[in-house]
């Protein structure tokens, strides 16, 4: 199935702006050479200075958006660089404002003699300091902030800004100025997409076809193969919830797919089938008998909203809604991929235990010392796993290497980088949301996709609504992980008589 990309829809929205008014894009070369860039610069200054009034500034901002949509990739990068450098804050104005603030602060220090009253409005009073502070705040506001806010206020402007940031992200680290521009755009989007402005919507088969099409397009974890596949995922024992913004009513921001089961599942297959294997969903009472809600797919729909916190609120909001609706639910968990495990393990083998991606010394001989396993033989089995294609879950050749793979997977998912984040992006997402690492599942997804991501392994993260805040604080504050004993046992397992073992 094929649908429009996100950017295609945005530019279609921009064309809709054009059809609703007499506005035309400014005629420029798509590569945006210096002469055309100077022309756009004058239009940008007119927006920032609100020449001709607010209505005129909004119209100019809309024309700039139409013009941007005609640029090539090179032209868009030049546009960003010009906007970031030439329409940033004025350093001289900032210096003057700082000098005035320092002077006001110095002159308003208490003295032993008589002085002005605190509420005096004369010179060198607290009110002058407030004025100096206000002037400094104004001076620190970059000019491009005004343009971005004018764009956000347009009909369809939020979708345009989201796409604009998606264009900017690949370039933001190329210069400090572009990093500042991205930070400004991120702050604007964070304000507009605050969770208090969003609506939690349950998507069903009766939801508009336009919105359901977007679910198929945006599903990033387990591809939706057909309309029948989507219908199953919205059928009995299944739920789908999304955050929607009133400014983008037909375009979900993020959505989560939920399966109602009995017990925490250890395999993906049953969750993608029409009915859960654990609970009979022939009628509504089947859902009432479920005791577990499994978040098995969470998809962010817009790259331009990277860094805008939505996923944690979505999971907690859905958990609270399901708790209120289905009294029998006692457990909230995920069945999540390990998207970087296979490539991480490949780097371990290539670079060795001292490589940049290493999670610490990995000596297979030490791990297998009690079992008399040759390290070279185990390493060869690992190489064969990584270099080969997907295996059947019941492949007997997997059993000898299974303990090693599970141990290394546990080490991978619990490794923290120097900046305090888990090296696995999915682990970081759930741990920062307050979940705990619950269980590694062998051959939970032995499909080609599951094999390519994590050699068929998947992992459960558990959300205990009573402890998620404390778990979040420990992880974010100190990098401390919360995990079940079974996962901890895979890291340093021993048998009952003290000998090292894996299971």
Describe the protein's architecture and organization.
This protein is α+β, with helices and mostly antiparallel strands and 503 residues long. The protein is 48% helix and 9% strand. The protein is built from 21 helices and eight strands. Strands 1, 2, 3, 4, 5, 6, 7 and 8 form an eight-stranded mixed β-sheet that branches. The longest helix has 17 residues, at 91-107.
Q: Gist?
A:
With 503 residues, the protein is α+β, with helices and mostly antiparallel strands.
Descriptive key words:
503 residues, alpha+beta, eight-stranded mixed sheet, 48% helix, 9% strand, globular, disordered N terminus, disordered C terminus
Q: How many beta-strand runs?
A: 8
Derived structural class: alpha+beta
How widely separated are the two ends? 43 Å
**Biggest sheet, open or closed, and with what strands and sense?**
8 strands, mixed
- Secondary-structure element order, N to C: HHHHHHHHHEHHEEHEHEEHHHHHEHEHH
From the alpha-carbon coordinates, what is the Rg to the nearest angstrom? 28 Å
**What is the percentage of strand-forming residues?**
5-15%
Uncertain residue ranges: 1-6, 117-123, 353-363, 493-503
Shape: globular
Task: State mean pLDDT (0 to 100 scale).
Answer: 83
Number of helices: 21
Helical proportion, percent range: 40-55%
